[in-house]
Amino acid sequence: MNAHAPADHGVAADGLGAGDAVLAFDVGGTDLKAALVDADGRIVELTRRPTPLAGDRTGEAVVAATADIAAEFRRAHPGVVPAAAGLVVPGHVDEETGVGVFSENLGWRDFPFRDRATAAFGIPVAFSHDVRAAGEAEYRLGAAAGFRDVVVMAIGTGIAGAIFIDGTLFTGGGMAGEMGHSRVADGPDCACGGRGCLEAVASAAAIARRYTALSGVPVAGAKEVLARARTGDPAAQRIWDSALDALALDLSHTVALLAPEAVVIGGGLAQAGDELFVPLAQRLDGILTFQRRPALIAARIGEDAGVIGAALRAREVAAAQAAEPARAVR
Amino acid sequence: MNAHAPADHGVAADGLGAGDAVLAFDVGGTDLKAALVDADGRIVELTRRPTPLAGDRTGEAVVAATADIAAEFRRAHPGVVPAAAGLVVPGHVDEETGVGVFSENLGWRDFPFRDRATAAFGIPVAFSHDVRAAGEAEYRLGAAAGFRDVVVMAIGTGIAGAIFIDGTLFTGGGMAGEMGHSRVADGPDCACGGRGCLEAVASAAAIARRYTALSGVPVAGAKEVLARARTGDPAAQRIWDSALDALALDLSHTVALLAPEAVVIGGGLAQAGDELFVPLAQRLDGILTFQRRPALIAARIGEDAGVIGAALRAREVAAAQAAEPARAVR
């Protein structure tokens, strides 16, 4: 899906239910995804385009791109008038102040996303963290529903998670769930400045990058590395196995500390299905002793969880706005 | 303090304040500690004796020993009549059912501590986990007070922690805070059946044991290993350094996942003071990049935190009992 395209999102989109029409934006390391949701909770249109990278002006470029998309949606669907927008981004996000504190992949520091987006759209904006928003979508509408203590991990370009404790999302002041930057090995170097971070070993991007570094063979992504491992390519097997080892080790720490009932895994790597989940569970069983192994479950909403989470947040803001007009953001 | 002795517990004991008189027992891997607290919140008597180890009958032996001590307290202090008792033990504890599910150091499985102790004492009994009770004492009366997100770790015979999230103790169904059994190295073997667990590398007991294994020299404890490291003993330095490395690595995982504001460290190893806290903070700074390094703080209540936590729990049960006599446990 590289341009505007009608969306078919099954369970998740149906699950949004009746409410305000909203705009939703999920800014990823590679793509910017946008959705227009109507009052029935249907995704009227979903579009994806490359995230505009402009060094330390990426924040401005992102807001400008979202405003362009909002205008396109307005022209294409004049009957759907959004009451609020949701904008979610990666990195360290301060939801209270609406500021993108830092993203090592996208380059901003202390960029006031909520204020700029509010000015650009002319409607109230909910600003949040991409993985936490995706986690909330999985928790409210997807695979994490029904658990009290559950971690929702996204493994794609990066690795991060949303932690639900006693049924409530725990943000840790915007800094919790950064298991992608837990040290699990002696290397390689990570974009964060660390060494041997989980994300540098086992993210989908790292699996592709490390395979190419080892074999000299360029690949389109982790999916291709897995396909090569399946056919007996020893370099691909080595990279895939080391990624599984690193993920299992990190999960074992999460289990020791938090004892979650379940770990829901989404993001590109989860598309490997049983080839990921079965050996991961085996490795985790091999590390754990007396601890309960959490259920390892594939995310159900999948790659659109971030934008759906952004829509959920936007609806919260719209509802709060309607309830308290005196505190209007506009 | 090896027999009955008057206690002087400063801040902590004063901090208990007015309330019901209670009995409090903290069953450790080595010692069983008991306290009688009066209505002013003073520890009238505190006693410590070896934990009675009787294989798979250790649960019964522990309850019998606590009943003996209760009788001794009754004879010695007839004017202090406890309204409830608090009993805390290590391992996997199910607080709801009052059952000690499992302790790898003490050998019980599914032992109904609360029911047996209630029958033995004739007063209501609060049953809980030693480290979580100690953590609550530090949270309510000690070094963890004032933080919303804080981990209280006890490093002694074993390693475990109490996790406070948004100001509330998180138990994870009795299984959270077992970072002592996070794998941080390739070895040595751990009592839990695992390999390279933090507890097998960096607990006070492991530091002494590993030093003796490496050097052939028996030592009384981790304190002596540190003293030898200080005088240039290379084996002692190697063991001490590897313990610090393991603790820093484990803390870095905790920080990535939970981003606590502070980590309070108690237990025997915390008595090393700056020789523990300064190099630990340096090592943690060396691993972390964008993450906030939590304040590393020595526990204030110290070695009696478990028994004081047990007293706090006993007072809760006594208060609940007074409020709802129809639901009396007696």
Automatic annotation (TrEMBL), chains A, B:
Enzyme class: transferase
Keywords, comma-separated and alphabetical: Kinase, Transferase
InterPro entries for the chain: ATPase_NBD (IPR043129), ROK (IPR000600)
SUPFAM superfamilies listed in its UniProt record: Actin-like ATPase domain (SSF53067)
EC number: 2.7.1.2
Highest taxon of source: Bacteria
GO molecular function, one term: glucokinase activity
Stated family: Belongs to the ROK (NagC/XylR) family.
Protein name: Glucokinase
